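Notebook entry, structure prediction.
Reason for the run: the old model in the group folder had no record of what sequence produced it. Starting over properly, with the input documented here first.
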Amino acid sequence: MAVIAPFRGYTYNYHVRRDFERLVAPPYDVISKEQQASFYEADPHNVIRLILAKAKTGDSDWDNRYTRAADSFRRWVSSGILLRSNAPCIYLTSLEYDTEGGQTQTRWGIISLVGIEEKDSGVVLPHERTFSAHKDDRLKLMRACNAQLSQIFGLFQDRDNRLLNDCREEANFPPHVSFALADGTRHRMWCLENPRLLRNAAEFMADSQILIADGHHRYETALNFRNMMRARYGRKPAHRAYEFVMMYLTNMNDEGLTILPSHRMVTRVPGFHLKSFLETLERWFTIIRIPVPEQDVPDEWYAALKKNLSQEWETTRIAFFRHEARKCYVLTLKPGISDDMGADLPPSLRTLDVIVLSRLVLQNGLGFDRSELDNEEIFHYQSDMKTAVSQARSGKYQMTFLLNSTKIEQVQDVAGNGLVMPRKSTYFYPKVLSGLVFNEIDPHEIIQVPSY
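New structure, fully documented this time:
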């Protein structure tokens, strides 16, 4: 059973600051160096100074980006920049965004604490692989700050949308926080502390599984931090603060839930030869060629590419584009090819486009081994097709592979079978912002889990 609980979170002091657009940022792992600098410039109290502080020449064990983040957090608390709620709350959020087709979507969610589960509990389910370097980085930050600074993005199933509808009915007053970002997204947040609502939420989630959509490294970091704190302070009494992790939870059946593709951009392929590469791929794929305009690529060309790339039936289609190419190639997987991807693949993974790309194209076609597929100096990721193509045209990348979005049903199937996908198999959009709520972890605090 999933255990959720309200908590006395810290927020920016919304009685004083209404310009949250200057204070928030995306999750740390999607922020580029250029974006990091712009967030630093946006405001001296932007959350970037907590989640992704700058390294400096001469950093030491006692003065580094983690200790500076902790110092900023403590100063912001003591000076009133951050305000702690008077009573335990759950935080209802509304996120409006415009789709590519021009429609407005709204995704509702709540921010609460969730009891940290063992990996094999079947309650909190991952769906992507994690890597030690990222977990080490986040653990250093959590140990320095004794706080969770960003929400993990979790999904639960609620076909009737009972939980979020109940929260929305309770939020019959102006939001505590309301702002819009330059990307066009609109954000609102309410702090809800009605005991009836908190009990109902805890009761509903007790029968639910939670699927991690985004934040796998942060969840495993919270688990490792909990184990360290247990060794120091023990497991009793129950519900100590370090037994919980802060999550943003939304309904996986919500119409506002969008998964974007995660296109692969490749910096270099030593000895690449186009003709032999395509000849190899013809064993597994039907290949069509789409001419590429010599000058700026018009929107009509992207529309034609999307039409050719779209999955009109249940098969894999991948587009391949390389630097200085006059053609883009759309690869359609031939029937009965799954056996060529390896006998080790369970059925849930064989249907994934990212697995087809990995096994047949990147490994068999280009000669990468599995360890190289996780090399961040070789492979980069981009959710926007135009950006992925333009960066290959400019020569920043040697080639790019364009994918369709992973379906939520595929994510459920993989996680439900205890399996994981390759990294960056999904891009849930929009990302959950950092800077809405912070959770300080006092090892002596006992979290009050609502009884029902």
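Summary: The longest helix spans residues 216-233.
The old model has been moved to the deprecated folder.
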